[in-house]
Design brief:
87 residues, alpha+beta, YefM-like fold, three-stranded mixed beta sheet, 2 domains
Length: 87
């Protein structure tokens, strides 16, 4: 089932920011801030933001592999660390 995110206005955040922030922390669901009926930003739980950043890093790494920018690991992680120290 597809659910649409909850929305609010910037004015509502000014009036009730604590309630909105608590709601996001409790439900872990984002709240989209609207201006002139257009989404502007989203308020998300910090853990959710970290998860999104991790997923983004994975996709970026996959893109670098496709573009041939990734370096193939040869040897151990210790060898890689020593190589990084000399670069």
């Amino acid at each position: 089932m597809i659910t649409f995110p909850k929305t609010t206005s910037a004015r509502e955040i000014q009036r009730n920011y604590k309630k909105i922030f608590d709601q996001v922390k409790k439900t872990k669901e984002p709240v989209v801030v609207m201006k002139n009926n257009k989404p502007q930003v989203a308020i998300v739980d910090f853990k959710h933001l970290e998860d999104l950043e991790a997923i983004s890093a994975v996709f970026q790494s996959l893109q670098e592999i496709k573009e041939g920018k990734a370096k193939k690991l040869k040897g151990s992680l210790v060898d890689l660390w020593h190589e990084a120290q000399t670069d």
